[in-house]
């Protein structure tokens, strides 16, 4: 427990710079999903400039954190085997699956009961196995689950590749080879799928939101983890240059506009944003802690960001859209504030009473899960 003098101190076990990136990512996502509420008000179009995709920040952060876990496992013993692999999957699935299936059920109920206007016919067993967008696109139900499928397949595939390659080369080399494969193969896949005739909707659901097209976004996080753990001096020494390069690349991405039918938008574009986020990671990892209410709030938003991501669109934004349609003016502004309050508030409760207690079970033997 924090005392009154440090009640707004950040958790020293966490890297505050990574919390900043994660909080930024979810703020960008929630802003993007809720901006329609401000239509016909003085804040229509807020924040009044183009934004990067917050999901790409999540992807790189996931790759970096999971890459760090894998590297520690690979270097903790002479052999990385099925037991280690099982423990890795157990920890990841305790972190991601319970919340996902809970919100999937909630989505099914609100659509089935007609509370929000989505297509219940689109729900099928693929949502249970994260195959709803493995290769083919989906739409019309639980839209935000697209990125979760990409992450879950990344958690499944990457360690298996490392384990397989580890029979031929050292485990550390296998990790680097797997990283290169994860970065290169999705880019090659996008090149092979290039279609100049597609429209914006097909580009969004068929390229941006399919597993095979986007695994490289997480692969850049794997590469960042490799540099951080294996070449720490280089990582720290080059963080200023790396930050300038990352920010410059983001500016280029925002200013260099090409149509969705262009080769750039269908292929290279999806490599540049995660690369830019990767270049910001050395600066982020150098910010070890924060002080004051602002830092405490950032870290809290970071902690509850997964729950915020799961509920903000269908269960809050679309519920407002279909049941309490904004009337413009101050009505729109007040409902936008309500949108944020509900998203943060419900996510905080979900994290405290469901997500966190389940995560705490990850390292307990099965016989102790239900013990006092």
Alpha-carbon Rg, integer: 21 Å
Q: Tell me, rounded to a whole number, the average pLDDT.
A: 93
Q: Strand pairing plus helix content: what structural class? A: mainly alpha
Oligomer state of the chains in this structure: single chain
Count of distinct strands? 0
Total count of helical runs of at least 4 residues: 15
Helix % is 55-70%
- Main beta sheet strand tally, sense and closure: none
Kindly estimate the percentage of residues that lie in beta strands according to DSSP. under 5%
- Low-confidence stretches at least 5 residues in length (pLDDT < 50)? 1-5
Helices and strands, in order, run as HHHHHHHHHHHHHHH
Globally, the shape reads globular
Could you tell me how far the N terminus lies from the C terminus, measured between alpha carbons in angstroms? 22 Å
């Amino acid at each position: 427990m924090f005392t009154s003098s440090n009640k707004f101190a950040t958790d020293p076990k966490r890297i505050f710079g990574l919390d900043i990136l994660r909080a930024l990512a979810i703020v960008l996502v929630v802003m993007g999903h809720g901006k329609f509420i401000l239509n016909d008000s003085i804040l229509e179009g807020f924040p009044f400039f183009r934004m990067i995709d917050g999901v790409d920040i999540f992807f790189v952060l996931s790759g970096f954190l999971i890459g760090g876990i894998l590297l520690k496992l690979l270097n903790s013993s002479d052999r990385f085997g099925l037991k280690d692999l099982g423990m890795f999957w157990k920890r990841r699935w305790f972190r991601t699956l319970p919340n996902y299936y809970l919100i999937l059920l909630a989505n099914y109920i609100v659509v089935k009961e007609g509370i929000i206007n989505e297509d219940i016919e689109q729900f099928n067993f693929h949502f249970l196995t994260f195959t709803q967008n493995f290769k083919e696109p989906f739409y019309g139900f639980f839209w935000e689950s697209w990125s979760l499928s990409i992450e879950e397949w990344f958690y499944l595939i990457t360690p298996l590749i490392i384990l397989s390659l580890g029979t031929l080369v050292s485990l550390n080399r296998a990790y680097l080879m797997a990283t290169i494969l994860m970065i290169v193969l999705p880019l090659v896949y996008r090149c092979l799928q290039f279609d100049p005739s597609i429209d914006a909707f097909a580009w969004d659901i068929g390229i941006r939101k399919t597993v095979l097209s986007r695994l490289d976004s997480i692969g850049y996080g794997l590469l960042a983890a490799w540099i951080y753990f294996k070449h720490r001096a280089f990582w720290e020494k080059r963080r200023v240059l790396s930050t300038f390069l990352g920010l410059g690349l983001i500016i280029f991405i925002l200013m260099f506009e090409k149509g969705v039918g262009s080769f750039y938008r269908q292929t290279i574009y999806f490599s540049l944003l995660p690369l830019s986020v990767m270049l910001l990671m050395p600066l982020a990892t150098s910010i070890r802690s924060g002080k004051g209410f602002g830092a405490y709030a950032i870290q809290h938003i970071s902690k509850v960001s997964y729950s915020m991501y799961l509920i903000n669109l269908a269960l809050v934004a679309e519920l407002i859209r279909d049941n309490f349609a904004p009337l413009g003016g101050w009505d729109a502004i007040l409902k936008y504030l309500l949108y944020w309050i509900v998203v943060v508030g419900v996510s905080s409760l979900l994290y405290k009473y469901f997500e966190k207690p389940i995560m705490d079970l990850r390292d307990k033997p099965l016989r102790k899960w239900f013990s006092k």
